[in-house]
Every structure is written in structure tokens, then in C-alpha cells.
Design a protein that fits this description.
Shape: extended
Radius of gyration: 28 Å
Distance between the termini: 83 Å
Helix content: 55-70%
Largest sheet: none
Structural class: mainly alpha
Strand content: under 5%
Number of helices: 7
């Protein structure tokens, strides 16, 4: 019995190491060009889309904006949603006009909603940050005859 187990392990090891081709296919992690990233993002392979999203940040800022504009104009709804998420990583003055336009004019309701929410959330955050400290209400003073917390 022991000889059979050793033989099976040996055969399995030989097949595993000697088989041409790949048993498990992994996405390529090579540097992609702008067109390669675009092709991967508009394709159907989720793994390739994920790898392509990681590559976007390696492009120059101008190439990123150009690519994401193309995806917003040409991609299907899920690809346009990816473009919206990637645009949000760029400076506000870059993405705000693009997403404002998408929120108003995109053909897909969900894409318009996502772009609109991104702009609205940023508006709320900016409003909260823009309140000057002297405009905040002051805390009421304790009455003079009230016992202080330190004396209790």
C-alpha cells in the first residue's frame, strides 16, 4: 500500500511539473498601455478589469483624464461607473465638471445617479469645511451660582 501511495505522489508530481501550459490562469501583471487599459476595462474579464484599474494610476495625469473621458463617452454603463470611481481619485477641479455633465446628461439612470451623488457628497463635505470657526455658536456659560464639576 505504501508503495502505491509513493508511486501516485511521484506520478502526480511529475504531471504537475512536466505539463506544458498553465493549470491556473492568472491575469497578466505587465505594464499596460493606455489602450491596453481601455481594452481591459471595456472587456468582460473581471480579473483583467481589476488589474487594469491598478494600472490607471501609473499613467500620467493627462493620460488618466484622457482615458477616463474616453471611457465616459464610449463605455457601457458598468465601465462608465468605473470611470467615475477612478475620476474621483483625481483633483476636484479635474473631475467636477466631467461628473456634473455626466450627472445631467448620461443615458443610464444609475450612472447619472452615481455621478450626481459624487458631486453632492463633495458639496456637503466642502460646505462643512468652509464654516469659519468664529461662525460656530459658542457654548453657553455656566451660571455663577452653579457648582462646578471640579468641586463635586
Amino acid at each position: 500500500m505504501r508503495i502505491l501511495q509513493v508511486a501516485l505522489v511521484g506520478v502526480f508530481g511529475f504531471l504537475l511539473l512536466a505539463c506544458p501550459g498553465r493549470i491556473v490562469e492568472y491575469p497578466e501583471h505587465n505594464e499596460l498601455s493606455k489602450q491596453g487599459i481601455k481594452a481591459a476595462l471595456t472587456g468582460d474579464d473581471f480579473r483583467k478589469k481589476t488589474a487594469a484599474r491598478e494600472q490607471i494610476g501609473k499613467l500620467s495625469a493627462a493620460e488618466q483624464v484622457e482615458l477616463l473621458k474616453e471611457l465616459l463617452a464610449e463605455g457601457d454603463a458598468p465601465t462608465r461607473m468605473i470611470a467615475i470611481a477612478e475620476l474621483m481619485k483625481l483633483p476636484e477641479d479635474t473631475w467636477r465638471p466631467l461628473l456634473t455633465d455626466v450627472a445631467a446628461n448620461d443615458a443610464d439612470d444609475e450612472v447619472r445617479e452615481l455621478a450626481g451623488m459624487a458631486v453632492e457628497v463633495d458639496d456637503v463635505e466642502n460646505d462643512e469645511e468652509s464654516v469659519p470657526p468664529d461662525a460656530l455658536p459658542e457654548a453657553p456659560e455656566a451660571p455663577a451660582d452653579a457648582p462646578s464639576e471640579a468641586t463635586e
